[in-house]
Design goal:
The chain has 305 residues and is an alpha+beta fold. Helix content is 32%, strand content 33%. It is globular. The structure holds adenosine-5'-triphosphate (ATP). Residues 1-129 form the DAGKc domain.
């Protein structure tokens, strides 16, 4: 049986409209399914946990990166369910990285007749307070601050979504925050190696997928099937240089410049001299000065659509 988790609010309310169209197809084809709507932040994880106690074998997510992140966080045993995804969010970095179709009807038809599966890694963020899984990326510092303010500025996001310019909202907020930021040093420990201290760190992100922030290809080598996290550290650059580099990150060309450091590892511990915002899949409801990123030992079976 299929279980659908739908964020009706995704991309400023588009989620519900798309679900209503897709439900007609499910009914026409007499598909056995259950529908669950997310009602508030964090609800996706609770619904996913609840679904694990039903006889659903395929869990389909309709929403954005935040919703798919919440859902992987809530699944109890990653080996017991097949995951599928219909991207209807604003940023859609998971779909972009996995090269999924943007057409919801095509995606549903693939999911109902699956031919291609990927077994994908799931990230884990730990702070002294919480442990949470993620699907795309998690980061500390400037990138999380952008997510935090982007989610606060719902009017701007709503307006840009209406004009089909959702990803521009990240860019506009990023520019403003960059100019007012005051980056300090951070220490990173990759696996069991010697710690490295970086001065003036804007952000460090641990990526399971290549893109974050609505289309920035921060870690072009990231592959969710390689059992490795890809780390990006942005350190010691002037604000002017960051402004010049940012557009090159849309095509993953930023990595060859001084001040951008990338690594691959199984786990990374970050210690910051100041408490900073932390995000998982673009939802930045956390703050910490110490975070650890890792991967779950199990992968989840995912239907490519
Ligand atoms: N009914 C709801 N009302 C308000 N917020 C919700 C609701 N359901 C889920 N949410 C929250 O909205 C967040 C963002 O939703 P989602 O990721 O689906 O869409 P998006 O923000 O448009 O896309 P993206 O994350 O790709 O930019 C989720 O992480 C969740 O915390």
């Amino acid at each position: 049986m299929y279980a659908f988790i739908v964020n009706p609010n995704s991309r400023s309310g588009l989620g519900l409209k798309i679900w209503e169209q897709l439900e007609l197809i499910l009914k026409e084809r007499h598909i056995d399914y259950q529908i669950y709507f997310t009602r508030r932040p964090g609800h996706g994880a609770k619904l996913a946990a609840q679904i694990c106690d039903t006889d659903a074998d395929t869990l389909v997510v309709l929403g954005g990166d935040g919703t798919i992140g919440e859902v992987v966080d809530g699944i109890r045993d990653l080996t017991k369910l097949t995951l599928a995804y219909i991207p209807i969010g604003s940023g859609n970095d998971f779909a972009r990285s996995m090269k999924l179709t943007k057409d919801p009807t095509k995606a549903l038809l693939h999911i109902l007749n699956p031919t291609d599966y990927a077994y994908i890694n799931v990230g884990v963020l730990k702070t002294p307070q919480i442990e949470r899984r993620y699907a795309v990326s998690s980061g500390i510092g400037f990138d999380a601050d952008v997510c935090y303010h982007n989610n606060l500025s719902s009017k701007l996001k709503h307006f840009l979504n209406k004009c089909k310019l959702g990803k521009l909202s990240y860019t506009a907020i990023a520019l403003h925050l960059l100019l007012t930021s005051n980056p300090k040093s951070m220490r990173i420990t990759l696996d069991d190696q010697k710690p490295i201290t970086f001065p003036k760190v804007y952000f460090i992100a641990a990526m399971n997928q290549r893109y974050e922030g609505g289309g920035f290809e921060f870690c072009p080598q990231a592959d969710p099937k390689d059992d490795l996290l890809d780390i990006i550290v942005v350190s010691g650059l002037s604000k002017f240089k960051i402004l010049c580099l940012l557009p090159t990150a849309y095509k993953g060309k930023h990595t060859k410049f001084k001040g951008i450091y990338t690594y691959q590892c199984k786990s990374a511990k970050i210690e910051s001299v100041q408490v900073l915002p932390v995000h998982t899949d673009g939802e930045a409801d956390l703050r910490s000065d110490t975070v650890t990123f890792a991967l779950e030992p199990d992968r989840i079976r995912f239907i490519r659509s």
